[in-house]
Amino acid sequence: MAKPDKKTHRITLDLPSSSKDNLDSLQELIGCNTRAEVFRNALNVLDFVSHELVKGNKFVVIDPEGNEREIVFPIMMNRSGSNGE
């Protein structure tokens, strides 16, 4: 992952109400103090996931009964060596 940058930059986003509501729900679910913190965490997750998928790795969810299913990330479908092989 990229090294933390000590400078900050303000970014303004236009989101539909449904995305704003989703953001607020995620903020509460994961216990972030701010929406910016949700975005920073999301970027870190996307950075990790995208690098792993490009290397050809896969993500699998295993439910409590032991059933497995592969997680497909549509955002990576246009990248060779990722979920969109």
In words, what does this structure look like?
- The protein is mainly alpha-helical and about 80 residues long.
- It has a domain at about 20-75.
- The protein contains two helices and two strands; from the N terminus they run ααββ.
- The chain has helices at about 15-30, 35-55, and strands at about 60, 70.
- The longest helix has 20 residues, at about 35-55.
- The two termini are about 25 Å apart.
Shape summary: globular
Instruction: State the helix count.
Output: 2
Class inferred from helices and paired strands:
mainly alpha
> Which range best describes the helical content: under 10%, 10-25%, 25-40%, 40-55%, 55-70% or over 70%?
40-55%
How many β-strand runs?
A: 2
Quaternary state, please? Answer: single chain
